[in-house]
Amino acid sequence: MGLPVQLISGATRAERVDRVAVEEPLELRLSTPGGPVPLGVLMRTPGDDRALLLGWLVSEGLLPDEFTLHVDPENGNVWHLMTPDATRLAAGARLAVSSSACGVCGSGSVERLVARASPPSWTAGPLPAAWLASLPDRLGEQQPGFHATGGLHGAALFHAGGARVAAFEDVGRHNAVDKLIGACVAALPLTDHVLVVSSRAGFEIVQKAVTAGIGVVVTVGAATSLAVDTAAAFGVTLCGFARGDRLTVYAAPQRIAAGEG
C-alpha cells in the first residue's frame, strides 16, 4: 500500500508516496460444541492465508487428520477450524499472539519438539556448496514485495535436484516459512528438500524445518545458539551467511560437497 512520507537528507526535505508492507492480524478459531476456542493470532501480510494457517498448524503439532478450514464470511481476518479432534486440540490450546518478528511465541521448547518430531530423512547425495550459496539470490528473484517495499521476508523451497518448488513472502520470516509448508502440506514430509530464508536462522526456522521433514536450511544471516543446538540434535544441515560462493555451516556438514558448483 502507498503512504505519504518525508525524505530528509541533510538540509533537504522532500515528500513522496512510498509503498509499505501490509501487516494485519489473522485469527484462527477452533469450532467446539461449547463455542469457538481461539487457537492463535498471527501478525502477517494478507495473502495465502490458508497456506499460512496450515503451515502454522503443522509447525505447532496441531494439524488434525480430518478437518475443514474456512474463512469467516463476515471477517476475512478470521478463519475457522472444524475437526472431530476438537476436544484434544481445545484441551491443549493456548492463545498465542505471534508477532511478525518472533515466531517462537507460539512454539514450545526443544524438549517438546523432540517429543513430537523425528530427524528428517535424507536420501540424496551431498549438495554442492556453491549451489547452496547461490540460493538466496534465486530466492531474491521471487521477492517482488521486498523489492517494492523493503519490508518483506521471503522463503523458498528447492528440491535437492535443483528445481525450485515454491516461494512466498511475508512481513514475518516465520510466516513466510509457514506459507511455504502449508502450500506443500500434501507432500509432507519434505524429504530431500532445502529451505532458504531471507533472514537470520533462529530457533523457530529450524523448528519448522524439522516438523516439515526438511533436511537442509540456508539463511542469509547468522544462526542463533538455540537454532544450532536444535539443528545438531535433529541432524539438520544448517547454513548461514550464504552469499556469493561462500556459506557458514553450523551443523551436519556431511550433506555438503565443498568445491563443487
UniProtKB/TrEMBL annotation:
Residues where Mo-bis(molybdopterin guanine dinucleotide) binds: F241, A242, R243, G244, D245, R246
Family according to the record: Belongs to the FdhD family.
Gene name of this polypeptide: fdhD
Principal location class: cytoplasm
Entry's localization field: Cytoplasm
InterPro entries: Cytidine_deaminase-like, FdhD
Pfam families registered for this protein in UniProt: FdhD-NarQ (PF02634)
Entry function: Required for formate dehydrogenase (FDH) activity. Acts as a sulfur carrier protein that transfers sulfur from IscS to the molybdenum cofactor prior to its insertion into FDH.
Annotated protein name in UniProt: Sulfur carrier protein FdhD
Active site: C102
Keywords (A to Z) from UniProt: Cytoplasm, Molybdenum cofactor biosynthesis
